[in-house]
Design brief:
About 0% of the residues lie in helices and about 80% in strands. The protein has about 80 residues and is an all-beta fold. β1 (about 5-10) and β2 form a beta hairpin.
Length: about 80
C-alpha cells in the first residue's frame, strides 16, 4: 500500500506527524479522503472527525474547523483546535 507524509497542526503545536495511507476529513462541501498521489489541493474544513490511516494503526481526531493542503505527497492539516479520541 502506498504511503505519504501527513501532519496535523494547531496553534499550540503538532498533534500528529507520520506516514499514512489515507486521511478522511470533513470538508465544508462534504467529507472526503486523500490518498497517495492525490492531486494538489487546498480546502477548507468544517468541524468534525478526521480519520488518519497510519502505518501504526488508525487515529481519530475531532477538529473545530481549519484548512488542509496536499502537494507532492505531503499533507498538512491546520486545525483551530483538536480533540484526540
Amino acid at each position: 500500500m502506498s504511503i505519504f507524509k501527513a501532519k496535523i497542526l494547531t496553534p499550540s503545536g503538532a498533534v500528529f506527524e507520520g506516514k499514512v495511507t489515507g486521511v478522511r476529513m470533513p470538508g465544508t462541501l462534504g467529507s472526503f479522503e486523500i490518498k497517495h498521489n492525490h492531486a494538489p489541493i487546498v480546502s477548507t474544513l468544517q468541524s468534525g472527525d478526521v480519520t488518519v490511516h497510519a502505518e501504526s494503526g488508525d487515529y481519530l481526531f475531532t477538529i473545530s474547523g481549519g484548512v488542509v493542503e496536499m502537494a507532492s505527497n505531503d499533507l498538512t492539516l491546520l486545525a483551530e483546535s483538536v480533540i484526540t479520541n
